[in-house]
Amino acid sequence: MFSGIVETMAQVVKIETEQTNKHFTLRNPFGEPLSIDQSIAHNGVCLTVVRIEGDLYTVTAMQETLRLTNLDLLREGDWVNVERSMLMGGRLDGHIVQGHVDQKATCIEAKETNGSWYFRFEYDSSREMIERGYFCVDKGSVTINGVSLTVCEPDIQGNKGLVSVCIIPYTYENTNFKYIKKGTVVNIEFDILGKYLSRYAAILNHKS
Q: Fewer Cβ in 10 A, N or C end of the chain?
């Protein structure tokens, strides 16, 4: 379980392919040791530490994870947003984030607005996906590349969903949002509470 408050960024130093899996080796940016089996969100994707060598650690993504997320687009030298799992009893500064990315989205606009940054993203949508809670509501929560954000200007146009977010300078400088531009593919996780409510409503509608 995560909060969507990115701790820092980690740099990919090696990528290995094994059958349909990919092993990503990154430099530990946390300033303290990690442990095998520890869960860390990478661009919002919960991955397990499987190997540690000095200040490097390795995580593995399976085929389904690569298909649904932007991890398959990573190259050596890229930076990813990282967050370790929440501590019990700590403050929930963001919102409840599972680290289970729902799908990819594409940036269709990125611009500076008087010191802050405005980003607009487009993602695939359908009636079935909406019934599963794969949509955004104004002033609700959404996770993009592991960052907990407040939704603005959500919309559904045909088979595309649209969502905008505004980024303060601190978030822009300390996450990989500073590398996002028009055409960049990101990971998106919709609000878990919205998913439960949407699914429940869909079941009731189908029964009536």
A: C
